[in-house]
Amino acid sequence: GAVVSQHPSRVICKSGTSVKIECRSLDFQATTMFWYRQFPKQSLMLMATSNEGSKATYEQGVEKDKFLINHASLTLSTLTVTSAHPEDSSFYICSASSPGQRSPNEQYFGPGTRLTVT
Amino acid sequence: AQKVTQAQTEISVVEKEDVTLDCVYETRDTTYYLFWYKQPPSGELVFLIRRNSFDEQNEISGRYSWNFQKSTSSFNFTITASQVVDSAVYFCALSEVNNDMRFGAGTRLTVKP
Lengths: 118, 113
What we know:
The complex is a heterodimer.
Chain A: E1 4-7, E2 10-13, E3 19-25, E4 32-38, E5 45-51, E6 57-58, E7 67-73, E8 76-81, E9 90-97, E10 108-109, E11 113-117
Parallel strand pairs in A: 2-11
Antiparallel strand pairs in A: 1-3, 3-8, 4-5, 4-9, 5-6, 7-8, 9-10, 9-11
Chain B: E1 3-5, E2 10-14, E3 19-21, E4 24-26, E5 32-39, E6 46-52, E7 59-61, E8 64-69, E9 74-79, E10 88-96, E11 101-103, E12 107-112
Parallel strand pairs in B: 2-12
Antiparallel strand pairs in B: 1-4, 3-9, 5-6, 5-10, 7-8, 8-9, 10-11, 10-12
């Protein structure tokens, strides 16, 4: 159980366009979802936390108007990178958690989406 | 603010050697959770272990073992008799009651045949 999927797994887009990444909890209801960004050979950095039905909370330095997060249902969160630039090229990973899960503070991670902006 | 330090950037060992990955953390909370994840070249994080701050028992799972010492704020990970398939980046992470998870910089382990 506790499977999280992401779509697409890889995406290439042109500079100036927007791209949407989906994160789904497949077998549980995720009240909270997290979005991380990982640049090559670096660690995962938390970008934002979203609770179902509320606005996302962004980490310092993350532009909320550029990285739009929507968590409209208990099984789906989306991250839209607007007006993408080459420096946005990165590995984006989502995770999900639920108060009903067996292990408090456990986050279940998706497989990641590799974004390349040309 | 919580912080996780993995001082070892890269480690290279020969197959069958034992290797220990260090993790030191900082937190002001008395309740917190520590994690280790493995990230192979595919990029997907593989959960290895979760430990809460009230449970200092060391744990062994096959060739993997973990040593949690609150006195030194460390949560070290040892792989016994390493194998080539253990080659990956390993992350230590800390989560406080707000559920935010902070990752260390990661240690890249290369196991050579």
